[in-house]
Design a protein that fits this description.
Layout: E1 2-8, H1 12-23, E2 28-31, H2 58-71, E3 75-77, E4 81-85, E5 91-95, E6 98-107, E7 111-113, E8 129-130, H3 133-136, E9 144-148, H4 152-162, E10 167-172, H5 181-188, E11 193-197, E12 199-206, E13 211-218, E14 224-228, E15 231-234, E16 238-240, E17 272-274, H6 286-309
Parallel strand pairs: 1-2, 1-6, 2-3, 6-17, 8-15, 9-10, 9-15, 10-11
Antiparallel strand pairs: 4-5, 5-6, 7-16, 12-13, 13-14
Length: 310
């Protein structure tokens, strides 16, 4: 079977694209190797998604997306993408040893947390080092933890951890946060959240089984200090999930690896589109991912109509 559209990724962008393309009467196959919802599904509270007067949890919101998409009859497979071939008019997707074909592809594979690169990070990953407070925060109830980062994600997760942990030390390499002012104000009202500005994590250390402390270094003075901690939560940005792409695919990417698209969200390869966090753009939020998922549909429909007429 040759599908009209294959979508790689079931985050907010991929699921929205699935809803819109299926509503247009297209045959749609979505691949997702992890939990539907992507990074949004690991977010404790989403406060800025339109239509919700109260914060909604990421898992709850993404479950609604998923249910709606499946109700429209979108086909979905939980397989790992090994590669794609976009050299011909019919696009090929290789997943877990099998080949799937479609006239158009929508790459919505999202992005993953960027590693900090500090000594001990790899050793203690899963043993105190985490990239998801919603997933792992419960394990550190009434304990002291460190949160690294200065954007919205880091501040939001610090607030979440502040509700269950004894103490949260928020570490940022600059002297001001990048996160929204309203979130910063909430941080300042929390007695059990302390900030360490102009600091970087020099080392994460502990015993054989768990983290016990974090060594910080002041970027201006070079001085170091030891912060006791049972857990370290890292939020220092993301990298696009494009490991299934090779240079042979010929898809243009920017210096950070994000896919470059035109106003119709099509890449430089006709019939190959990109939506959501994997795409080069200025803002990565659930709302912008949803916008991409909707905006990509007209371009896909137009492209398919030209293919079928030729």
């Amino acid at each position: 079977m040759i599908y009209d559209v294959i979508i790689i990724g079931a985050g907010p962008a991929g699921m929205t694209a699935g809803i819109y393309t299926r509503r247009s009467g297209l045959s749609v196959l979505v691949f997702e190797n992890g939990t539907p919802g992507g990074q949004a599904a690991t977010t404790h509270a989403i406060e800025n998604y339109p239509g919700f007067t109260e914060p909604v949890s990421g898992p709850e919101l993404m479950s609604r997306f998923f249910e709606q998409m499946m109700n429209f009859g979108v086909e979905m497979k939980g397989k790992r993408i090994e590669g794609i071939d976009v050299s011909g008019e019919v696009k090929k997707v290789f997943a877990d040893g099998e080949e799937y074909q479609a006239h158009a592809l929508i790459l919505a594979s999202g992005a993953s947390p960027r590693l900090l690169g500090a000594k001990g990070e790899g050793k203690y990953r899963g043993r105190g080092v985490s990239y998801c407070a919603t997933c792992d925060g419960f394990f550190f109830k009434d304990k002291e933890v460190v949160v690294v980062g200065g954007g919205d994600s880091a501040l939001q997760e610090a607030l979440f951890l502040g509700k269950i942990c004894k103490k949260v030390t928020l570490v940022h390499r600059r002297d001001t946060f990048r996160g929204a002012k309203v979130i910063q104000d909430r941080i300042n009202l929390k007695d059990n959240i302390v900030t360490e500005m102009d600091q970087v994590v020099e080392e994460i250390s502990g015993d054989e089984s768990k983290v016990t402390e974090v060594i910080l270094k002041n970027v201006k003075t070079g001085e170091t200090k030891i912060v006791p901690a049972s857990g370290v939560f890292i939020f220092v940005g993301y990298i696009p999930n494009t490991e299934y792409l090779t240079d042979e695919n010929g898809l243009e990417r920017n210096s950070q690896g994000y896919l470059i698209t035109d106003e119709h969200l099509m890449t430089n390869n006709p019939g190959v589109f990109a939506a959501g966090d994997v795409r080069a753009k200025n803002l990565r939020q659930v709302a912008t991912a949803v916008g991409d998922g909707a905006a990509v549909n007209p371009g896909v429909e137009h492209y398919l109509s030209e293919v079928k007429e030729s």
